[in-house]
Amino acid sequence: MPDRGHERLFDALTTKGTAFTHDERRELGLLGLLPNAEKTIGEQVAHTYQELARRPADLDKHVFLRGLQDRNETLFYRLLAEHLEETLPIVYTPTVGEACQRFSEIYRRPRGLYVAYPDREHLREVLRNRPRREVDVIVVTDGQRILGLGDQGIGGMGIPIGKLSLYTLIGGIDPARTLPILLDVGTDNVERLEDPQYLGWRHRRIGDDEYYAFVDDFVTAVREELPEVLLQWEDFATAHAQPILERYRDRLLTFNDDIQGTAAVALGALHGAAKVAGRPLSQQQVVMLGAGSAGIGVLEMIRQEMVAQGLSDAEAAERIWAVDIAGLLTDDRTDLSESQRRFAQPAARTQGWTGTALADVVHNVDVGVLLGLSTAAGAFTEDIVRELAAKTDRPIIFPLSNPTSRAEAHPRELDFWTGGRALVATGSPFAPVERDGKQHRVAQCNNVYIFPAIGLAVTASGATRVTDAMMRVAAKTLGEASPALADPEEPLLPAWEDVPEVATRIATAVAEQAVKDGVARPDDHLAATVRRTRWTPDYR
Ligand SMILES: NC(=O)C1=CN([C@@H]2O[C@H](COP(=O)(O)OP(=O)(O)OC[C@H]3O[C@@H](n4cnc5c(N)ncnc54)[C@H](O)[C@@H]3O)[C@@H](O)[C@H]2O)C=CC1
Ligand SMILES: CC(=O)C(=O)O
Ligand SMILES: [Mg+2]
Fold it and tell me: What are the C-alpha distances in Å from 353 to residues 334, 348, 381, 388?
């Protein structure tokens, strides 16, 4: 931290701007550098909020907030904390999707690290140039599958920046100890490649051999420079996501948010939904539209949960139906990856069916749970939803694709088509649904309920690995916080104002599990340690 003068005033992590008192201004060599008035942080928040509210377009609000983050991080987080529900869709899905698509156009200042393939001989140097010395959490992407918007190349950087903002806001990770990273390995997005403004390496994506070698060199550089950091993989294409996770999960403190974080939040939301529906998960037939990294990750955890509820592996597999763009995953298909094959149904089970698309599965199976991680907007059609709703009292329907434009259905339609019986959660935020003159909040089933808590847990406990059991405990603790458990009219997941507190509880449970799994140091006061670890947006 620069200790005096102009540099101190412009240090985003420690500046107070107009809130520096006169005594501080004298002490820090700031006298004359600021207008005379002394503001409180409360006044600064009110003023900044007015400025934000004046901007009509969400992307403009995003640009404004990113600018504030680059100027004064404490004020940025205080503003977000005081207006969480309103600002979350601006810094996160859906607006962050547009910010990634238009990244080069709206670019203002550098943040984080751009680890580019042309610099591959100097990765250690790149890591050493990181803007912040001590780092607790890295979020890294290669920009190839940004939400449901496909390959955004360097524009993908919007996602690690946004996710890390939520690590701080919800998980209390000190913003000075976060590091967003973009692996720039080219892009196959022709529109970006032909855009004169494009800021990334103007090159097609490199082939798999070069790619995995580069990722390996990157991981090596991270381990040498920051051996204890949590390395979170985000928005990698499915073909790379699973192999990367398998390669590194037992070697370092790491997890893949789209695979593991999504699975945990979905299971957490299903906990409340199954309770309200009056039928445990193990007695439901579950259909997943989308068999990418997110969909398969969720199904893997659902299967584990069914087994925990008493089914054998085979019995659980019988109840899980995965559908992708080519139809139902069946054992006679030759295009499936190893992780997809685990969810392939015997082709014999579809004998007599007229097809294997989603509509056919819903027609032929006694479906109770329908999940979407497909990027296929509107794929949960009226016919499909009405047929499903005729089979069960309380259909559980989660259109989880992001951003909003990719959702498999709109909650208002789901409510209408099912006569208000559907138990709904979406990936991106939607306005409340009005039913019987009452507004009903729609649960946002997004991994943001999980990853900040994982970051807090491993930071507080000094964990060295993220185990499957830690992710399951996160799901369970979130599930137990479902407002629907106490009142079936309530949403399936906690309200945003409660989420930082719920994250603290999840983090404590996850840290305890880490100790049980032998990957964290024992601590008799873990709950207190977790709370103490939390950073808060106050001027020091
Ligand atoms: N709610 C949440 O917390 C999360 C949501 N997601 C969302 O999940 C979506 C998928 O992510 P990934 O699995 O990584 O992507 P992916 O692209 O690897 O997988 C998409 C899957 O959907 C299938 N699909 C695509 N179009 C289809 C169609 N018209 N009909 C049937 N199936 C179709 C594909 O065959 C593929 O199996 C994205 O929109 C992403 O934003 C991802 C992670 C977390
Ligand atoms: C939420 C998230 O991680 C995604 O849509 O990719
Ligand atoms: Mg993601």
Answer: 20, 10, 20, 17
pLDDT given for residue 2 in this prediction = 78
Looking at the domain that runs over 5-89, which CATH code has it been given? 1.20.1370.30
Q: pTM for the whole thing?
A: 0.98
Please tell me the predicted confidence (pLDDT) of residue 1.
74
Assembly ipTM: 0.99
The reply to whether CATH 3.40.50.920 applies to domain 260-445 is: no
**Nearest-CA residue for atom 5 of ligand 2:** 147
Q: Are strands 327-328 and 320-324 parallel, antiparallel or unpaired?
A: antiparallel
Tell me, in angstroms, the distance from the centre of ligand 1 to residue 268's CA: 19
- Ligand 3 centroid – CA 256 distance (Å): 9
Q: Given phi > 0 = left and psi -120 to 50 = alpha, else beta, which region is 139? A: beta
Ligand 2 atom closest to Cα of residue 257 = 3
Give the model's pLDDT for residue 446.
98
Residue ranges of the chain with per-residue pLDDT less than 50:
none
| Helix, strand, coil abundance in the chain, percent, nearest 5 | 50, 10, 40
Mutation test residue for ligand 2: of 96, 262, 406, 426, the one with most atoms within 8 Å of CB: 262
Domain ranges of the chain: 5-89, 95-252, 260-445, 449-515
Beta-carbon contacts of 61 under 8 Å, excluding residues fewer than 6 positions away, are: 52, 55, 90, 95
Query: What does the alpha-carbon distance between residue 511 and residue 514 come to, in Å, rounded to a whole number?
Result: 5
Backbone phi, psi, residue 301, to 5° = -75, -35
* Centroid of ligand 1 to alpha carbon of 296 (angstroms): 10
Asked if residues 468 and 303 have their Cβ atoms less than 8 Å apart, the reply is: no
DSSP at 330: B
Identical fold at 5-89 and 260-445?
no
402 lines ligand 2 (CB under 6 A): yes
For residue 250 the two structure tokens come to 């037992």
Q: Rounded distance, CA 142 to CA 486, Å?
A: 42
Contacts of 376 by beta carbon, 8 Å cutoff, 6+ apart = 289, 290, 325, 401, 406, 408
Q: Is 15 in the pocket of ligand 1 (CB under 6 A)?
A: no
* Binding site as annotated, residues for a divalent metal cation: 234-235, 258
Q: Give binding residues for (S)-malate as ranges.
A: 145, 402, 446
Assigned CATH topology for domain 95-252: Rossmann fold (3.40.50)
